[in-house]
Amino acid sequence: MTMSRDQALALDAKDPLAPLRAAFSLPPGRIYLDGNSLGVLPAATSQRLREVVEHEWGTELIESWNSAGWIEQPGRIGDKIARLVGVGPGELVAADSTSVNLYKVLHAACAMQRADRPGRRLIVSERSNFPTDLYIAQSVAREFGLELKLVDAPEALPAALGGESGAEVAVLMLTQVNYRTGVLLDMAALTAAAHGVGALTVWDLAHSAGALPVALKDCDADFAIGCGYKYLNGGPGAPAFVWAHPRHADRFWQPLSGWMGHAAPFEFTSDYRPAPGIGRYLCGTPAILGMAALECGVDTVLAAEPLGGLAALRAKSLALTDLFANLVEERCTGHGLTLVSPREPARRGSQVCLARDEGAYAIVQALIARGVVGDFRAGDAQVPDILRFGFTPLYTRFVEAWDAVEHLRAVLESGEWKRAEFNRRNAVT
After folding, report:
1. Among 109, 241, 296, 352, which lies 20 to 30 A Cα-Cα from 423?
2. Looking at the annotation, which residues are catalytic?
3. Which of 185, 193, 201, 131 lies closest to 162, judged by CA?
4. Could you tell me the sign of the dihedral formed by the alpha carbons of 362, 365, 367, 372, in that order?
5. Coil, strand or helix: which one is 388?
6. Fold of 5-41+309-422
7. Which positions make up the binding site?
8. pLDDT, tens digit (0-9, with 9 covering 90-100), for 137-162
9. Which pLDDT tens digit goes with each residue over 353-364?
10. Regarding the domain delimited by 69-302, which CATH topology (the fold level of the hierarchy) does it fall under?
């Protein structure tokens, strides 16, 4: 056997990150393997929200914009996130949603290319990129009269940036970790390839920020956006974040020129004057409750810094995903599961994705009924339906990975997933 349950417990006993689990309000009796979709509630969040609601809003009222620092939240929290993605203070802000932020930076990148390289006609991405990214790209492409070109696999990206077509690429838009397969792209190499043909890069960090080391500046990326409610544990619908490389930040207005992105919003002038740097990528009034919860979530990730930081989180993530994948292949053989996440550590994010031709949704529902929470993602022409399991090293234990595989084996061997209640689709899968 790859590892016994007692050996998994022994790993937990000597895990240097184990104390961080106490920072979360984990529901008893559940093995939560869906932090790549919605992070667990930090223990500090409920009290912090009560403080904001009852004191800052309830007592201090509008004075809290100054006295409680509400107006500074986008930049203050942005500086904390910056430490997780390899950029400097004052370069990143927390704001809006990933979709809205993607629209801002993709529009700005296309405007820059229209000014600098007017013959460019392509936005390049992966067909398996998260759908909202592709929808936003379609919208921006229509605005600029461009074409969205989709490649079928990461291996096809270099070819899309090479030859005569490379000279037509305006922007390469990618997600660092694929949401459906867990494939981790080589940001440095792909950014260099894009720059080699004069293209700009836009990176979506939704499945990487907070889970593994991200080095935007070292990789010379141009723009990035990311999600606040997955590995950053900011709560459902938490504000997202946006970054523009300092060499680009002052060059163009982003398209949503709202009052918070004004150089002096409280002058209330009738003409827009963009704030310097990343401040111009703000738009409307910050969502104060969401920002407060997001800051608590980001603090749970930063709490790992004295224990080895993101490098330690990454090492544990790889150990957890290796254990789970090995046990599935050993204990669930013959049940039609195919590992689609890469086995090579350098190519894998913090999730394990299993494909199955039949019953993937129902199997996930049967696991949830047993207290093992993963999720389902529909397949496509390249990959069948997916059972997806996310491993957040801040709070996931090795014994939970071991027990989850035993539950998966039992669901498959018993055939309980075939029961009618597990085959009725919920609105959210």
Report:
1. 352
2. 130, 204, 229-230, 388
3. 193
4. positive
5. strand
6. Aspartate Aminotransferase, domain 1 (3.90.1150)
7. 98-99, 130-133, 175, 204, 207, 229, 259, 285
8. 999 999 999 999 999 999 999 999 98
9. 999 999 999 999
10. Aspartate Aminotransferase; domain 2 (3.40.640)
